[in-house]
Amino acid sequence: MGILKTFVLGGVHPEENKLSSNAPIEKLAIPKQAIVPLGQNLGAPSKPLVKRGDEVKVGQLLAEAGGFISTNIHSPVSGKVLKIDNVIDGTGYKRPGIVINVEGDEWIDEIDRTEDLKTEIKLDGKAIIEKIKTAGLVGMGGATFPTYVKLMPPPGKTAEYLIINGVECEPYLTSDHRLMLEKGPEILVGTQILMKALNVKKAIIGIENNKPDAIKHMQELVKSFEGITVQALKVQYPQGGEKQLIKATVNREVPSAKLPIEVGCVVQNVGTAFSVYEAVQKNKPLIDRVVTVTGKAVKKPSNFLVRIGTPIQQLIDAAEGLPENTGKIIGGGPMMGKALTTTDVPVVKGSSGILLMKKEESQRKVESPCIRCSKCTYVCPMGLEPFLLSKASKLGKYEIAETEKIMDCIECGSCQYTCPASIPLLDYLRLGKNKVGAIMRNRGRN
Amino acid sequence: MNMFTVSGSPHVHGDDSTKKIMYGVVIAMVPAMLVSIYFFGFGAIRVLMLSIVACLFFEWLIQKYLIKGAVTITDGSALVTGILLAFNLPSNLPGWMIIIGALVAIGMAKMSFGGLGKNVFNPALVARVFLLISFPVQMTSWPKPSPITEGFIDTVTGPTPLGIVKEGLTAETPKTMSELSSEIPSAMQSLTGEMGGSLGEVSAIALILGGLYMLYKKIISWEIPVSMLLTVAVFSGIFWGINPEQYADPVFHMLTGGMLLGAIFMATDMVTSPMTKGGQLIFGFGVGLLTILIRMWGAYPEGVSFAILLMNATVPLINRGFKPKRFGVNTGVEIAK
Amino acid sequence: MDNVIIIAVAALGGLGLIAAVILYFIAKKFKVYEDPKIDEVEEALPAANCGGCGFPGCRAFAEATTTSAKKNKNLEGLNCPVGGNDVMQTVGSILGLEVEAADPLIAVIRCNGTFKNTPAKVKYEGATSCAFAHALYGGEGGCQFGCLGLGDCVDACDFDAIHMDPETGLPVVNDKCTACGACVIACPRDIIELRKKGPKDKKIFVSCVNKEKGGPAKKNCAVACIGCGKCDKVCKFDAITINSFLAYIDFEKCTLCRKCVEVCPTEAIWEVNFKPRKPKPVVEKVIPKPVVEKTTVIEKVEASPAPDKETKE
Prior knowledge:
The structure holds three protein chains of three kinds. Chain A is of the alpha/beta class. Chain A has helices at residues 125-134, 147-150, 175-182, 184-198, 212-222, 242-250, 270-282, 312-318, 359-362, 375-379, 386-394, 398-403, 414-418, 425-445, and strands spanning 25-27, 33-37, 47-48, 55-56, 61-64, 73-74, 79-88, 94-102, 161-166, 202-208, 228-233, 265-269, 288-294, 302-307, 326-331, 338-340, 353-358. Chain A is 28% helix and 20% strand. In chain A, strands 1-14-13-17-15-16 form a six-stranded mixed sheet. In chain A, strands 2-8-7-4 form a four-stranded antiparallel sheet, with no helix packed on it. Chain A is globular. Chain B is mainly alpha-helical. Chain B has two domains: 18-138, no CATH class; 160-197 and 220-321, no CATH class. In chain B, 58% of the residues lie in helices and 2% in strands. In chain B, helix 3 packs across helix 4 and helix 4 (95-110) crosses helix 5 (123-134). Chain C folds into two domains: 36-95, 3-methyladenine DNA Glycosylase II, Chain A, domain 3, CATH 1.10.15; 105-272, 2-Layer Sandwich (Alpha-Beta Plaits). In chain C, helix 2 (36-44) crosses helix 3 (58-72) and helix 2 runs antiparallel to helix 4. The radius of gyration of chain C is 27 Å and the shape is elongated. Chains in contact: A-B, A-C, B-C. At the A-B interface, strand 15, strand 16, helix 13 and helix 14 of A face strand 1 and helix 1 of B. Strand 1 of chain B pairs parallel with strand 2 of chain C.
């Protein structure tokens, strides 16, 4: 196989624990009550279009984009709107959301519910982007950046490569892996649609080497798709980070504080490519997604196809219940996921997994003094000095943090993962990023 | 009911810890310890035990009664300091001097700066230099090695190879290197450790073994030892090339004195060395250069400890000047249209 | 030998002389006129450089007062909260102005989410920073408005006036408070407010900032303000406003009559430093926190419909 490509700076290799990689995607039952938060994407929350008591069908527009970086939200279920109220979501806060009491499963007529593969792309670039925008697609990897925004390069910039992110470098998560195995052709059609929208001739699907079956499967499939190649990558966290993936696949370095389009690349997740296929070829807005439910104590680690708005309690039940000694519930993977406060939280567009950690696993180790081993510096994929930045943030020296490029931090957590003294480096880095970000915005305003 | 924990990501942690690093260093020092016991016998055990116990005791005393904070003597850092201090002492040093050394190392060089991770200078080296300046006679009379297999005999004291060379070259009627060559140990003897010197500095093989172990365990990185030894080799090589009668050869410089001990265990001390690869290269270069300067023209035959301490003082500056390569800054990659 | 000494002295002396001349001319040329009153005012200030006046340090405040006195002939809007009225009077007399006495203020903590009142539902692990925890999640007790108890206010205080009470998990302000406002800025949840220090430090305030509806608020915290409006109805002085299910008592209008305290169904309104009521047939209202010595104020203060703090992303 030779030396596999990867990114150069830093990186760690946490235990992979891909427990659910052999569990086929199961369709989960429709929930009795769907909770649809209005803020499901990075950027502005959406504005509700329905009101209490309205009857809705699956696929019907529930809320429209509330700004440029915002998306439409469609009803994942059919039934009656119970209320529009503050509901607890993954952020740990109560935010506005729409609660729907489910009745039956009635879909709007426009959606093609057949399973046939439609390969012929009838729409032109502009129409594709419009369709993706209307369907409310966001990045399915977890960052939930509205997809259509990425497909419209700013004036003067053109894309050269489309990179499809099948890396799934987070330990435990397998939703992208299963999707590639089971919906390979759809993903490739989706990729072609994205290529057409971006007007690029080359697409690369990056897959980490710990998924040999997916690499083989996709390599087999791409033979009949022009311009798409599969790139196997060495297992290294955080390879799924946009900038790291671009470095690994096409060896270009996105300049600090710039977007990937600067180096002619657009990165989309495999899950997004699949949703693009569904939205463009089947008229189906983003109303469901694949979610991994996993953890060392989970009886049946699984991958579920669930409707947006399903409370995660239902997913946990389907994976044969919450283990006795669960100490932490994480929405997402163990490196970047968010700890959830309750199981009432609904699945949203960006939920890639539910990780249930045992009490003993979840406890943080006791912090001890920094011994200046510089391991955090070695593993930082952005070439930053986490020890310095966290200290600066802790002491409120935000000017130092800013000049030392704290805003380049991608919050991958490699530093804190490695730290022998178990210092909560990333906690302070996040704090510093918040403060420095606010200071910079203020400066821009004045 | 389960009470869930909420915290920021990451939710997993690698299994690295300060303890593991410290005990890793201790394991790496075992070969050198065994060699020192083999050659210096009971004296070596005495110095080692006294130094370790005194360091642990002072750390405990200061943490418990002076700072009144948590006692962390089990983290292994005081143990490492104790062994390193012993490695820097001759095996016949009076016990009370060792205890003073331990007090200086722990009290003055480490705790007064705020404890683990906050000290500017390597504690063991500060203690060594303190003792060297305070008790020059005792600190520079080393017992001749006598393998334990030959029984416990009263050992004769004598200077180290470096001392022999220094004295010979700077005597009223200077000797030449070829005249001195019969008095200094052969390269083979330096490798095994059959020469006079402090406990830990005699055996090159044992030290290199420890160094390789630490490299494998990623406790140290190659930059400091390599750049330091390379600098020493190059500079001593230049002078040796100019006049082999007047200057010792590079191999002699690299294998004698505290050079390897310094390069592998002292200069690489995480707390007191620079944090980036570039900085570490410069640091190693500086230590090597200063060592050679002191050895050739200084008053002392041995310069490693002074060189490391001097360079320790420059570490904050080096850290400021040498930043890691940032991602996406000065990429040199042409930005696509 | 003598020669050497003379030459050395002459050379150094000459150098010194030349330098002195150069410095003299430079000092003349670049001299900036400064009102000597600025120095006088600065002398009179507490030199805490806390920024409580809104200026970066006492010197800047002294400059501002002097300029204002010269231009506007008053000191409107300028107040040194740390020095209080005494210092402001002195400053006024230096500048030849009458200074109206401002009401002394004190920081008040408007949350009573003790461990008992808001039982923890989740456990927090991580950086000891309210600002970070605020960005991470709602709070251990589930109230997303209440005190996070990680002590950003304590860290911000330069006067040793605020401490965490380990029993309640809430901060407590003591009489060292100078109302500099550092804690108000530090608190990511806008719980701390500077309120008027009434006669004998008497205060009445709503010790809650929860803007949720009554039901959800009560669910997480036994003593939350539920926005029922009873206090508003009973207040004769129009001092109480209700906004997003939260009552706020305007301390300028409040006359400390204590009527609102009696009617509050959730004990969210606090009276501090009052004498115990005359025994009435009515059930005595027990203040959850015993008020300490005369002036030590335990402030749990009322919630105001304060403008939303910029939410952290």
